[in-house]
Amino acid sequence: RLAGARILLVDDNANNREVALDFLAVARMRIDVATGGQEAVRMAKAGDYDLVLMDIQMHEMDGYTATRAIRALPGCADVPVVAMTAHAMAGDREKSLAAGMNDHVVKPIDPDLLLRTLVKWIAPARLQGRTAPQAAAPV
Description:
- By secondary structure, the protein is of the alpha/beta class.
- The protein has helices spanning 14-24, 37-46, 63-72, 92-98, 111-121, 124-127, and strands spanning 6-10, 30-34, 51-54, 81-85, 103-106.
- The chain has six helices and five strands.
- The protein is globular, with a radius of gyration of 14 Å.
């Protein structure tokens, strides 16, 4: 169902990026990686993403600010942005939604929940006719 989707993964922590990429490897999607909010905004401006997975707490530009900046870009107002964060306290989900995000997934990531969230927000019509990357060879 997600084959061919283009995802922008934004996280400034290498370990978190590696874990997320491992979970996302089961679906044949194209994953681009940004290591900070400013880079994410530049990539969103140049790319055509089906969904952005956005960390909240980053050094140069936090995920809230990056999401607002992405939303202001031409053609990006409706791109689904999902917070992928350790912020799990009461009110954190609401802060993500208030910043313009569509959903909120808490770390440590539950791979099934992550994939269900992607299915929920990526419109199947966007993926029609796309060529999916080849599945990774078993190690």
